[in-house]
Write a structure and sequence with these properties.
five-stranded mixed β-sheet; 4 helices; Oxidoreductase molybdopterin-binding domain-containing protein; signal; OxRdtase_Mopterin-bd_sf; OxRdtase_Mopterin-bd_dom
Length: 168
Amino acid sequence: MTTFFTRTLFTAAFIASAGIAHALEPATDEVVLTVSGEISEANADGAAQFDLSMLEGLDPVTVETSTIWTDGVQSFEGVPLATLLKAVGADGAMLRASAINDYAVEIPVEDAVEGGPIVAYLLNGEPMSVRDKGPLWIVYPFDSAPEYQTEQVYSRSIWQLDRIEVQP
C-alpha cells in the first residue's frame, strides 16, 4: 500500500512538473515573434520564441475591421493578445512592442482583453509580407467601439512586429 501511494504521488508530481517545464515547446521553424521580460514560460534563453505554426495553435480568431491604413473593411486572423500573454505567463503592466526596423510602442497590458487586439498573421486570408505590414501586425477591432478609434490606440497598432517585452 505504501509503495503504491509513493509511486502514485511521485508520478503525479512528475507529470505536474513536466507540464510546467514543457508547457511551451521550442520553435521548430523560423521564429517570427520573441516575447521576453516578465514571463514565466520560456523556451529559449529566458524568452518565449514563436514560429508561425505555434501562433496558429493558440486559438486564432478573426477580426473584421477597417483601419486608417487600409481601404474598407479587412479581415485579420491571428492570436488574441490576451491569449498570447497567458501562454507566456506574462506578469507585467506594460508591453514594449518592437518592429523589425526597431520602431517601438508601449501597450498597456490592460488592453489585452477578450474581444481586444490580436497579433494578426493573415490579412484577408493571406500571409502578410514585410512590404505589406507583416509578417505580424497588432490590430485592434477599431470598428467595434469608439474607444478604439483614437490616435493613442492607432499608435499602438504596430506592424512588422517581431518582439514584445513584458515590463513591470
